[in-house]
Amino acid sequence: MKRFLKRTIGILIIIFLIVSIVPYALPISNPVQFTVKNPFNESNYDIVDNTTIHYRQWLPKSSELKGKAVMIHGMGGSSYSWLLTVQPLIEKGYMVVAIDLPGFGYSDRREGIDHSQSNRSKIIWKVIDNLESRLQGGSKLLKWDLIGHSMGGGTVAAMTLDRPEKTKTAIMVAGALSENNPSQFSVLLKYPPVRRWIKVVLYMVAIQPKRIESFLESAYGRMPTASELEGYLNP
Question: CA within 20 to 30 Å of 10's CA: 85, 195, 222, 235, which one?
Answer without folding.
Answer: 195
